[in-house]
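Subject: for your reference before the review

Hello V.,

The reviewers asked for a structural picture of the protein, and I figured it would be easier to keep everything in one thread rather than splitting it across files. Below is the amino acid sequence we used in the manuscript, unchanged from the supplementary table.
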Amino acid sequence: MFHKPPTVSSALWEPYQKGACLCTIEFKRTQLSAANSYSVGFKFEHGKLHKGGSILGTIFSASRKPRVEPTLRKREAYPQNVDLPPVLPKQKKKPYPIPFKKIKQVAKEDKKLAEMGIEKPLDAPKNGLLAPDLIPVAYQVLDAWKVLIKGLAQLLHVIPIYGCNECSEVHVSHSGHHMQDCLGPTNSKRRSFHSWIKGSINDILVPIEAYHLYDPFGRRIKHETRFQYDRIPAIVELCIQAGVEIPEYPSRRRTKPIRMIGRKVIDRGGLVEEPQPWRAANPSSLADLDTHGACERFPPPLPSDIPKIAQETMDAYETVRFGVMKLMKKYTVKACGYCTEVHVGPWGHNAKLCGEFKHQWRDGKHGWQDATVDEVFPPNYVWHVKDPKGPPMKGGALKKFYGKAPAVVEVCLQAGARIPEKYKPMMRLDIVVPDTEEAQLVA
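And here is what came back from the structure prediction:
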């Protein structure tokens, strides 16, 4: 005889007494915690209850599955709208990219080893040797950097850009916007309207330069000797120290690692004089590495080639950004906590060139800390324009409906390139900008 389970009500058990078929009966156990959110179910499949209590077919099967909502995962992976990183105040030092407690803990461990006379364990490239797995990445980044400069120089012949003559605002459109957010020295006379002039490639790719060092672990640059070193793009210097060979910018390649006790270098393989073959080199061979005069070097593209060049430029931008991020995980890059100065190497230089907040207290020296990717390769966010040939963008109540994107992405987008998925949330493509009268009615 097939008896009724004690946890099943009589209303549910009555069809079985009459010989009917029941599809599913689920028994839920008490939920203990969010981590063990499971359900145990007893499922009747194709079974019929006959007279006499016999059941043909499969009686039940137990299942134990976690309750996961796929829509929640998708929403977390692709948010609808993302706010840009906040603008840091200039009257305050930048936050440390690594928590200060962790920096103190590492320094305490190094000091403890130094007091015991034990050498500091160093892996490549922290010990002066090259990381073999990152050499192809460095060459790939440098090649993409050249493609990025060439592609932008060609696209700027057909995509107009404007820059404010008083502040750092950049706008990619056929005319400047009408937002009153200029912070220039004479903004009060213009009621905070921008003073637009024709922009250049340096408004899209912000030039971040660093000193080129033949031996990053050698002598530190002093304020009196700063003119003896070349200033090149920080990305190029990072690729050179990661293994790229450029005859005009030689770099010392060590075969034996350096040795350190605490912060003191006890064996660096001697100091070697820096060769200077760049004095007899042809400057035109280095033109592809810099943005200076790029628009004059490359002619305007054909109208049929503009979408292809835009897509290649977009891919090169993503390659450079991903490669720089990968190289900076191993190679040390320092940035000033007050200004935009960047130094590629284990220690920052001693040139007294900082003129930002409280530089008198530091005698003009930079406040070095670990750099971030945005400091070495700034994205330079600009307003996303849905209709470049339409009316100028207005501020006020409509400002919260606009999105932003990196300047390179906005230029390539207007030239016909596809938008990468990670930039769509910050561009706010799903928001319809209302009229001025409608915006006043929005809560």
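For the response letter, the relevant points are probably these. Confidence is low (pLDDT under 50) at residues 19-65, 68-76. The longest strand covers residues 38-49.

Happy to draft the paragraph if you're swamped.

O.
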